[in-house]
């Protein structure tokens, strides 16, 4: 019974060894005192101990609701349907044959665990960079969300980023920009950014994600031009599993074309896995004395553990 966080009155009566009539003499008082709660309406009603379930879960007209899921959950189905909030979460639970109410509780607790890493909407990954490389050339590196979280997979931004890039969908790219614009503007002001640079893609596409993001964000600051050198064989960063290979790739193929210098610079990338691209780009900017003071890095999503490789994006 301890493992069943929600139970029916029949299950509860059986566990306590009393009749259902006797049980219903006690339930109203326990509900009134707030010691237990209930979800659903007859004939399907579940009871739970309140401190064992996240308070944002509630039932209205037999519809289960969760503020966290409604605001933060998204899944894209194999057929390309974008399901948001509880609709998407129910789909995921049904597909994986998971009990909805119990899984909502587990998702909310997992989400809150990861959300603790956010300060003012930004995740600071600087300490990971310092543990990955002998020399770090950025002062701080941030991302707006994790690419994925344990058990539940890709985050809302993770899903949007993956399919915006893979499908070259301008509408999805615009949605991403609208969702991150405010935080980026706040970062520009907070760190007194004087110039911005967007990390160029390796693989040529008709619609380039970073170019579209640059256009949609419409940041009114000087743009430092970065170029990706074309090679006989294109080797995307995501195909390299070793950090040292990613470092070499970034060092040899990214060029900085700029003659002016600025106090504080922001480098923007779509996803940070190893961090090699951002770090090597910052190194070249410093070597050319384009940055007088500080260099910051920002990615739409980043990895959680260390700087493991994000191979999809």
UniProtKB/TrEMBL annotation:
Source organism: Candidatus Roizmanbacteria bacterium GW2011_GWC2_34_23
Coiled coil: none
Name the record gives this protein: Helix-turn-helix type 11 domain-containing protein
Superkingdom, taxonomy of origin: Bacteria
């Amino acid at each position: 019974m301890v493992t069943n966080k929600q139970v029916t009155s029949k299950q509860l009566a059986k566990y306590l060894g009393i009749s259902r009539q006797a049980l219903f003499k006690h339930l109203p008082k326990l509900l009134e005192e707030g010691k237990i709660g209930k979800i659903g309406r007859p004939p399907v009603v579940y009871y739970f101990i309140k401190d064992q379930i996240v308070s944002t879960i509630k039932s209205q007209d037999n519809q289960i609701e969760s503020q966290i899921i409604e605001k933060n959950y998204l899944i894209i189905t194999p057929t390309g349907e974008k399901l948001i909030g509880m609709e998407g979460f129910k789909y995921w639970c049904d597909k994986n044959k998971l009990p909805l109410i119990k899984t909502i509780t587990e998702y909310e607790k997992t989400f809150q665990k990861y959300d603790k890493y956010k300060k003012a909407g930004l995740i600071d990954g600087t300490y990971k960079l310092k543990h990955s490389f002998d020399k770090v050339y950025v002062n701080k590196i941030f991302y707006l969300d994790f690419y994925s979280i344990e058990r539940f997979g890709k985050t809302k931004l993770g899903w949007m980023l993956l399919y915006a890039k893979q499908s070259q969908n301008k509408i999805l790219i615009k949605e991403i920009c609208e969702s991150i614009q405010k935080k980026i503007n706040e970062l520009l002001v907070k760190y007194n950014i004087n110039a911005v640079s967007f990390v160029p893609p390796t693989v040529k596409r008709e619609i380039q994600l970073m170019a579209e993001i640059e256009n949609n964000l419409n940041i009114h600051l000087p743009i430092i031009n970065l170029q990706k050198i074309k090679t006989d064989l294109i080797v995307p960063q995501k195909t390299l599993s070793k950090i040292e290979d990613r470092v070499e790739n970034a060092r040899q193929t990214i060029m900085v074309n700029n003659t002016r210098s600025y106090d504080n610079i922001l480098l923007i990338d779509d996803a940070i896995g190893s961090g090699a691209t951002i770090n090597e780009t910052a190194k070249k900017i410093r070597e050319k004395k384009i940055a007088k003071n500080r260099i910051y890095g920002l990615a739409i999503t980043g990895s959680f553990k260390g700087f493991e490789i994000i191979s999809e994006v």
